[in-house]
Amino acid sequence: MAWQKQVLRVDLTNGTSHKEPLNMEWAEQYLGERGLATKYLWEMMDARTDPMSPDNVLIFATGPLTGTMASTSGRYAVVTKGPLTGAIACSNSGGKFGAELKYAGYDMLILEGRAPEPSYLYINDDDVQILPAGDLWGATVWHTEETLKKMHQDPQIKVASIGIAGERGVRYACVVNDLHRAAGRSGVGAVMGSKNLKAVAARGTKGVRVADPKGFMQVVKETHKLLAENSGVREMTELGTNAMIDAMQDFGGLPTRNFQEVQFEGTEKINPAAMMEKRPNGHRNLLTNKACFGCTIACGRIAHIDEDHFTIVNRKEYWHASGGLEYETAFAFGPVVGVDDIDALTFAGFLMNEHGMDPISFGVTLAAAMELYEMGVITKQDTDGIELKFGNPEALTVMAEKTGKYEGFGQLLGLGSKRLCEKYGHPELFMGVKGQEFAGYDSRALQGMGLGYATSNRGACHLKHDTFAEDMEDQTGKGKALPCKESQDATAALDSTGICLFTAGAWGSDNLARQVDAACGGGWTTERFLEMGERVWTLERLYNLKAGFTAKDDNLPERLLKTPAPSGTAKGKVNELDKMLPEYYTVRGWNQEGEPTEQTLHRLGL
Amino acid sequence: MKITVKTGGLLYEYLPPDRTANRATLDIAEGATPHQVMQDLGFPADGSYLVIVNGELIAPEKRPELRLADGDQLSINPPLKGG
Description:
The complex is a heterodimer. By secondary structure, chain A is of the alpha+beta class. Among the domains of chain A are: about 5-205, Aldehyde Ferredoxin Oxidoreductase,  A, domain 1 (4-Layer Sandwich); about 240-435, Aldehyde Ferredoxin Oxidoreductase Protein, subunit A, domain 2, CATH 1.10.569. Helix content of chain A is about 40%, strand content about 15%. Chain A contains 24 helices and 17 strands. In chain A, strand 1 and strand 2 (about 15-20) form a beta hairpin. In chain A, helix 13 (about 360-375) packs parallel to helix 16. Chain B has one domain (about 1-75): Beta-grasp domain (Ubiquitin-like (UB roll), Roll), CATH 3.10.20.30. Helices cover about 10% and strands about 25% of the residues of chain B. Chain B is built from one helix and five strands; from the N terminus they run E-E-H-E-E-E. A five-stranded mixed β-sheet of chain B has the order 2-1-5-3-4, with no helix packed on it. In chain B, a hairpin with a 2-residue loop joins strand 3 and strand 4 (about 55). Chain B is globular and about 40 Å long. Chains A and B meet through helix 8, helix 9 and helix 18 of A and strand 4 of B.
């Protein structure tokens, strides 16, 4: 129950599809979404496969709670081998697409092979067709979604698609659904592009059944109340995730100019207050907020750009509302590239959604390029005549568009920071882990964040663990290993349900387990739920070990390990990864080479 | 003596009506602590906050001990979280 108990498997090479029963033995061990897709990936492909080859497998997976009346139940995950990192990629998204895929009758969509010509997949309940993409190949995400709805004469179709960036293999291309929600990180859109698959258009009418409707309704009512009464949730509703930028600035954890600094002088020009400020000409950046499927938080921002701004003054096609700044986009187009022009930041965000790119990886890659430019390693001759200095809003928006369209210097930015910095002989300027760029937290100020970054299975990521409370209390490496491990497991469990991570501030794992238990037919205690999360995390680790990663890859750039934070509450500090990592391996039940011991594998049934 | 208080997120709601955006200048008693200032402003005692004085992080157990001085900058933010 709650599962549809059906997988849609599509062989793009041969143009065939078939439905098969969901492996319920695996579902009992890995639940759904991130966890279950990881199990399928592990069983289906060799982890050493080239991520851009037809042998890579691309999985869209819902969770058992996806599409139910549980709050925030719109999530689905895209799991594959990532082209940015060579590690397992797991990017999840909200919007409405995930619930629609499930309503069509599928827990999971497995895409194999490579279509002989650009194609898209149309799913209308049991009707599944692989159709030629035609002129959609080369089109933007926004155009693709609008066109598919018109072509199929159904505005209720939900679309997940890629832009030119995904088609052309930008290493951090994402899959965008519902115009501005995205499975954003690790380049899952590039894998979709390598399969000649432009879009998945889904329409479902089947609904979802839960095992214990009365019990489920009761626990959903209680958990909705917890969200409604939580002050952190209220803050996300009213201010969005960018509410945190002021705190991060005061704390001194806001990465600035490619992590050379930790505080940004322009923060108050791009914070929530700036988004809400009415200007002398009457323009206000923020229009409203927006919720994903079934969400009672509504952290999304809907914004528009001043029509007189240089970015769109002669481009009426952008004189409309779209996804506005969130914390990570504010960071990636603001402090880390030194830009404080809120309209330029908002436009860069539009371009990410329109062309299908991860804003974090783009921004941090651009930041590295700017540092190379200021060092004189690259010049205007390399950058298509653009002055790639920190703080230049034109450099931000022009390069965002060039990368999205895979033009000029944008092609090099599309490599990601690691490959770009290596190309120009300065690998030390890459700010990330395992090939993936950092999010907006400096791990000299947030020690546990550094450990989480270093050990994240998909490369540097802030969403796979939660040590914020510990990082606020103590700015040394002490006491970070256990909460890092435990929160990684809890997050892996949450990511396997179909629920949004932003419920975590109000719901503990017990509240999630109760919902899963009522929906899935009992037996889901909190202990079992968390053990499932640990199993998922460990299987992801096994995947990466098989792919060739070792403990040496659980590392941070020297800038964070040897150059002290220049200001803020952590002034003078570096990250103490050398103290945290051995303890982390121990609490995980791994040896000091970062490999799970036989005992740990046995305990988890691996 | 006077101090400046700056808040993050929605915590400006605890500042006096004469605040400017998320900032306010407060007249406080000699030797007042961050804990007392927050208490006087009505911050719920069971809340979790990120408290910084003049750029230095003040742990919860230090908040009732630290004596504020004239001209100090007190920053009160909600707890850090992912976004």
